[in-house]
Specification:
Radius of gyration: 27 Å
Number of domains: 2
Largest sheet: 4 strands, antiparallel
Distance between the termini: 79 Å
Structural class: alpha+beta
Number of strands: 24
Oligomer: single chain
CATH superfamily of the largest domain: TolB, C-terminal domain
Number of helices: 1
Strand content: 35-45%
Strand order of the largest sheet: 3-2-1-24
Shape: globular
Helix content: 10-25%
CATH class of the largest domain: Mainly Beta
CATH topology of the largest domain: Neuraminidase
């Protein structure tokens, strides 16, 4: 019995040590999972926060609808700041990828021309000076040039001007029609624009290297204001194919058309957020009443950054 008892006692000690080791291992594994969970949660929280980081530049029209200025607001809807001022019409801003330089259209010299300035409004200068209309400037991918549309050749065509060579322009389209609202892909290889070559306005794409031209939309309504997603795989635009202007997306080849907004008074000037998860646009509810809004790229609830008490138009979102 003594021998058996000794064996049992030793066995209990071994079992006890064994279970202690298991508890330690389980504890380590549990802590590991907890640590991984905390990291994942932190990353998710950062990504969620990252999605709504940045500022939005837009043009602000006063309630008397006489002047427009380039303004800025945090993506949270706070810290409204005017960047330009004066009794003029400054509109449709676009921001370089690095967030430091802004291009915009201004009528301060009488007719619309393309301007550029620092993000704080300093060093404003004209890149074009022409008796024609030079409108809707947009940076190329490298921010070294700006595309815009102009009627300097008679009908409206797409042109390009280099930032360091003002007033020297290059014509990019020459269709026997009107081309508006250019946008350059993130890789700099393609250009989208709207054209009434088919009667109504459709979205076209031009390969800037080969010159190949492709019609992306084919509707009897107006498809305008196209813009690329950050990865270049999608295009957003607005269309009145439902009877009023709504925001749409499609793949860059023109397939997989999706309506994003529904029941907006008039959705205009859509563009993607820096992370591609949202689309910013402005909604018009009447003369002199428009607000900057954000909607998830898959559609859903619309969040307003500004109110409809005045006109807040043509927003572009840049990360800081």
């Amino acid at each position: 019995m003594g021998s058996t008892s000794n064996v049992d006692h030793n066995g209990l000690i071994l079992m006890n040590n064994y279970f202690k080791k298991i508890k330690v291992k389980v504890g380590i594994v549990g802590c590991s999972f907890l640590f991984i969970g905390l990291i994942a949660g932190s990353v998710f929280a950062q990504e969620k926060h990252h999605e709504y980081r940045g500022v939005v530049y837009f043009d602000h029209q006063n309630k008397h609808m006489r002047y427009q200025t380039i303004s800025r607001i945090d993506i949270s809807g706070k810290n409204f700041v005017h960047i330009t001022s004066g009794k003029t019409l400054d509109r449709v801003p676009d921001v370089c990828r690095d967030g430091n330089t802004i291009t915009f259209e201004s009528r301060r010299n009488g007719n619309p021309d393309v301007y550029i300035m620092n993000k704080d409004g300093s060093e404003q200068r004209a890149l074009t000076s022409n008796e024609a209309i030079d409108s809707y400037p947009r940076f190329t991918a490298d921010c070294q040039s700006i595309v815009f549309f102009s009627n300097r050749s008679g009908n409206y065509d797409i042109y390009l001007v280099k930032v360091n060579q003002p007033h020297v322009v290059k014509q990019l389209t020459s269709l026997p029609a009107n081309e508006h609202d250019p946008a350059v892909s993130p890789n700099g290889n393609t250009l989208t624009f709207s054209s009434d070559a088919a009667g109504n306005f459709d979205i076209f794409m031009k390969n800037l290297k080969t010159g190949e031209l492709t019609q992306l939309t084919h509707s009897k309504y107006d498809d305008i204001h196209s813009s690329f997603s950050p990865d270049g795989s999608m295009v957003t635009f607005r269309s009145n194919r439902t009877g009023q202007f709504e925001v749409y997306t499609m793949w860059v080849d023109g397939s997989h058309l999706v309506q994003i907004t529904d029941g907006m008074a008039s959705a205009r000037h859509p563009s993607f957020s820096p992370d591609g998860r949202s689309i910013i646009f402005h909604s018009v509810e009447g003369q002199g009443r428009a607000a900057i809004a954000i909607v998830p790229v898959e559609g859903g609830n619309v969040r307003y950054l500004t109110t409809f008490n005045e006109a807040h138009l043509n927003g572009t979102w840049v990360r800081y």
